[in-house]
Amino acid sequence: MTTLMLKNIGTLVSGLIENPVLDGDALLVEEGIIKRIGKGKDLEEAGADCVIDCAGTTVTPGLIDSHCHVILGDFTSRQNQIGFLESEVHGGVTTIISAGEVHLKGRPKDPAGTKALAILAAKAFNNFRPGGGKVIGGGLILEKGLTKQDFEEMAREGVRTVGEIGLGSVKQPEDAAPMVQWAKEVGMTVMMHTGGTSIPGSSVVTADMVMKTNPDIVSHLNGGPTAIPLDEVKKLVYETSFALEIVHCGNPLVAVEAAKMIVEANALDRVIIGNDAPSGTGVIPLGVLRVMNLLAGLTPIAPEQAICMATGNTARVHKLNRGVIAEGKEADLVIMDAPMGSVGEDALAAIAAGDNPGVAMVIVDGEIVVSKSRNTPPAKRKPSIL
């Protein structure tokens, strides 16, 4: 049995929005699963094959990018870039969720082709971990002609999500709503494009269209990249129970105003954070961190709450056994601290000040996959392996 212990943790962020900071300074991992959480003096008695001294840094669940347009492998044709998924791992992201493989050159748009692509991408990424990160591939793009039996087959073959509705030929609520129901019946999580057009062939999607379609997730509430008007944002915040996604490649003003509404509506548990890259905006390895900074720096949202939005909230919506530091959860973890030169004394204070934290170590299933981030500034304090 392989065991890992993290001790001398300064702050332990749970990923649970209702209780974001845990009372503990150590945790024990066995065979990639969190086994115990508590005080170092108590857990040391259990022994461990490997011990990491966190040196007073902050430990959080691995971040989850709720919105990424992967293709196959670690390559994006949209920006002709290799290694963009591995770069996200160096930004503390341990899970990346496809919102649809829409950028695939020659993407099939018939029912058989779109189904085959979703199954292929889901299976391929199930076998491939870029930089050690986990990718939930196969975000089904809805095309006219798909049947209930197609959804049943895709679910059996491992397709977990419907990519953002509006990217394929199914755009109107009357066409999408039946498919959304079929998807939910087989356990898929459904995303829906919201706002102005993002690529040729996509469409403008209003709040009323989203409400009539009834997805699980309002993709990029703050625009992807163009946002709906604030009165429509208000309608989605106050009149629905959908998950509300805020992304980096969107409208920052609307992100801030939407966050203020969300705080007022006591709906923090509905917010998830994504990148929405690669896109015309580019490839942004630290996009999830930057959205956390935006929310914690310019809205009433606390930095530990922003971390929970990028971890536990997303894991709950997508039915993943990770994103939370709790017994029985997958041990996907990030060790971070204030970056050198920051006014913040620790990672949370740095995030509140608008600084990207220094990612000192990334752990996936109890295995170290990044020992020092190549993308964030260096952390003030550094963990060590004993």
Total helix count? 12
Global shape: globular
By CATH, the superfamily of the largest domain comes out as Metal-dependent hydrolases
Unreliable stretches, pLDDT < 50, 5 or more residues? none
Structural class: alpha/beta
What is the number of independent domains? Answer: 2
Distance between the first and last residues' Cα:
19 Å
CATH classification class of the largest domain:
Alpha Beta
The order of strands across the largest sheet is 3-2-7-19-20-21
Mean pLDDT: 95
Radius of gyration: 20 Å
Reported by name, the CATH topology of the largest domain is TIM Barrel
Second rung of CATH, namely the architecture of the largest domain: Alpha-Beta Barrel
Fraction of helical residues: 25-40%
| Strand content bin | 15-25%
Characterize the biggest β-sheet: 6 strands, mixed
- Count of individual beta strands: 22
